[in-house]
Amino acid sequence: MSRLLLENLSEINRQISAAPHILLFTDFDGTLTPIGEHPHAAQLAPETKTLLEQLFRQSNMTLAVISGRALADIQTRVGIEGLVYAGNHGLEICGPGFHFIDPEAAAQREALQQLAEKLSARMQAIAGACVENKGLTVSIHFRQVADKLVDQVVRVVRATVTPRHRQWQLTVGKMVYEIRPRVDWHKGAALHWIKDRVGKPKALTIYLGDDFTDEDAFAALPDGITVKVGHAEETLAKFCVANPAEVQQFLQWLLERNHDD
Ligand SMILES: [Mg+2]
Prior knowledge:
By secondary structure, this protein is an alpha/beta fold. The chain has 2 domains: about 5-100 and about 185-260, Rossmann fold (3-Layer(aba) Sandwich), CATH 3.40.50; about 105-180, Trehalose-6-phosphate phosphatase related protein, domain 2 (Alpha-Beta Plaits, 2-Layer Sandwich). It is about 35% helix and about 20% strand. It is built from 9 helices and 13 strands. The protein has a 9-stranded mixed sheet with strand order 1-13-12-11-2-3-4-5-6, sandwiched between helices. Strand 2 (about 20-25), helix 2 and strand 3 (about 60-65) form a beta-alpha-beta unit. Helix 2 runs parallel beside helix 9 (about 245-260) and helix 5 packs antiparallel against helix 6 (about 150-160). The model has no long low-confidence stretch (mean pLDDT about 95). The structure holds magnesium ion. Magnesium ion binds near residues 29, 30, 31 and 210.
């Protein structure tokens, strides 16, 4: 069971004070921004963006945003140049002087496109369902689907991606199905790759996320400060906060304590 982050700041303060550098990873949807009705509408609040920019300018901090969205999408939505960005759950990464695409996932682009087309055609009859091809992964959003039609979405997804389709991994998030190529790569692997590139081996890692896929990152950081946003019953994260507003509070605290050092 994770502990409340905002009630344990003195302990975290000690850890940060002892660290030569901070590597701050954050998810986007549900972590920096509340999850809205339309995934296309999610925007960073101006005060959150300002806060990220200020943290980014701290000489003892490196910032990385890691998301299930496509890389270009997350770069545009955050819009701060020079940050490290990881899209498609870490399958593509871009930062100052480095760029990575998982080669196995990239090799499946065409097959994924065909799968997305097949799903789109089958979803057409279900009002509100939306298939989004993000290049290396596919999302099927059903937040806009009427309750009585959700079963139909589930049926179509399960009939299209069956256990026979070994190359795909199907997971369910918050009113969204995710289809990813079954490759040996996830957010945990991505963050270690980023850590190596950033070249701060002794950095303290802080990781904030609300997704099921963030659990891979929590598991990969036994010595880090891992923070689950939202329901904290079943998580590997050490700490939890209730919502993006509390994330904002924590980031503000992080900035202020840094100025006091
Ligand atoms: Mg999220």
